[in-house]
Structure formats: structure tokens, C-alpha cells
Amino acid sequence: MEATEDVETSSTTTSSIVVKWSGKEYRIESVTSTTKVSDLKAQIFELTGVHPSRQKLLNLKYKGKTPNDDVLLSLLQLKAGTKIMMVGSLEQEIQTITEIKVDQTNIIDDFDISEEIAFENREEYLAKVAKRVANYEVKIMNPPREGKRCLVLDIDYTLFDHRSVAECANELMRPFLHEFLATAYEYYDIIIWSATSMKWIVEKMRLLGVLDNPAYKIMFFLDSGAMVSVHSEKYGVIDVKPLGVIWGKYPQYGPHNTVIIDDLRRNFLLNPKNGLKIKAFRKSHLNRDKDRELVHLASYLVKIATLNDFSVLEHSEWYEYIQSEKTKR
Predict the structure, then answer these.
(1) 33, CA 20 to 30 Å: which among 101, 149, 206, 214?
(2) Which regions of the chain are under pLDDT 50?
């Protein structure tokens, strides 16, 4: 068995591992040369409540594949403080998984924005955006291309279900992701913006095969540091994704040629006319065989790419738009 290989390190040597799950980090202490993967999962269970059978440690590898539970962690050559990404659901979520409808979860996570006109031009928020333009560092991976529109994409529940049960990252990837990005890339410079840290954005994109896909290129990533906080009378303080940060740094983009796609409408609260709310991709193990949201969305982006000014569009009616175009044929 894999776990019987000789280990020369002392069993008294201890270190720690950090597990990232559901937007939080959990530190696993006292990892020794005799600690097995099963022991690690047991400690994760104590901290998170996610049963070992539900845990998928996406970037934990041994000889190029996911290690068995009896493999010693010392054989994985992990450095102290190594961070591991975990996906998995709590037992109570599994028990109610067929009882909660997608529309209901959207209602829980989102809200009807009645204040959006007031938000757009408030001086205090414009000042915050200007500060991000001046101080936030963008690391360009691929330069902007002349004449292209700008497409800004969320990750969690838009491109990737980071909570459901799966054997590998590909099972959590929204169907047709690579085809969608390849189609969009013909007309748009693509930016990924997630409300998490840059480290985990890069890791998720690597696991999904987005970083080095030959069919398209990502212009750059934006993380939570580029977001700004606003105050809603109904919901208190929330963080949003202001497109003005992009427009301030790259003036070739603006309200006339930018679309931001997110499963939460509140994320584009400062730019409601440029926002397109996509149906959240949850419960991938139930929905990945029937979800075609990105196929339809690719058609829409291609259709509108020929327009000189996106401000004439109502993105909330995007699906009806492509259906009407089909009827005209």
C-alpha cells in the first residue's frame, strides 16, 4: 500500500496546514510524519463539520493523483503552512438538497435594488472608486486588444460551484465554461473579479484549466481589494464591484462597451445598467448535466458585440433577447 513507504523524518516533527473552505481558513495544527490523510480529514471534520466522506481536497496530490486516506502526509512533501482548498457540504445541506429550489436560494442571496439610482453618483462612493483607481495594483497577464469590448466575470456560483460534492474541480465547473470563454474572447477582453483573495482566484482558475487554455486569454484578475463598501438602508454595509475601477485605469472601456456578469445583482450596485445577473450554478452534482446557461449567454454576448453602445440594452432581458432573435430567423 502507498502508506507503507519508508519515511525518514521523525514522528515528533510537527507543522501546520491551512484549509480553505467556504470563504474561511482553518489551521490544522500538530501535523507529524505519522499523520495520515484520514487523520487530516478527521481534524477538518472537527473544525468545519464537513464529514470526511464529503471532503474533497482539490490541490492535495500524491504521484499526480488524489492520495488515498491511508497515505502519510509526510510523503506529500508539504511545507509548513501549506494551504489546501476543500470543497464539501455539511450533512444538513445534503439532507435538504432536494427541498430547496434554485429560485429560493437566489432570493436569499440577492435583493431587489430599489436604491441603485441614488447609489451611482454619490460623491462618497465616487471618492472610494477614485482611491481604488489610484492605489489598487492591477497585474496584467495579457494586454488589452484594440477594438474589443470588456467582459467582467464573477467566479463562485457563476463559473464554479465551490460548495457541492464532487470528486474533482471539473465536476464543480459550470458546463461549457471553456467554450463560453473561447467564444467571448473573440469579441471581449476578459477580466475575472471575485470577492476573495488573489491567491484563491489564481488557484481556482488553475484547477479549472483557465490559466493556460490555448483558446482564450484572461486580461487580469481583480480580488476583494478592488471592491468598495456601500451602505444600504435595508441591508447595511455591503461590498460591491465598481466598474469605475476598471474604467479609471483603462479608459478605452466604459459604460458603452462593458458587461459585468454575476449571480448576485448587488455586486454591480454602482453600475446597474452594465450588470447582467446570471442564474446561480449550485448543486453541481444535480445540475451539471442540464445547465446550459453559458451556452445561451455566449449567444447573447456575440449578438450585442456589434453594438456601439451597450447603454441601450436591458441586460435583465438578455434571455428574451436571444429568443426573439431566433424567432426572427
Answers:
(1) 206
(2) 1-12, 93-109, 111, 113, 115, 117
Instruction: Identify the bridge partners of residue 277 per DSSP, sorted by sequence position.
Output: 262
Contact 187, 301 (CB under 8 A): yes
> Which 3-state string (H, E, C) describes 4-61?
HCCCCCCCCCCEEEEEEECCEEEEEEEECCCCEHHHHHHHHHHHHCCCHHHCEECCCC
Domains of the chain: 10-93 (3.10.20.90), 111-328 (3.40.50.1000)
Torsion angle (degrees, nearest 10) of CA 176, 276, 88, 80: 100
Predicted pLDDT of residue 106: 42
Residue 220 bridge partners (DSSP): 191
Q: How confident is the model at residue 211, as a pLDDT?
A: 93
Query: Residues for the chain: how many in total?
Result: 329
At a CB cut-off of 8 Å and minimum separation 6, what does 279 contact? 102, 106, 263, 293
Q: What is the DSSP string of 106-132?
A: HHHH----SSHHHHHT-HHHHHHHHHH
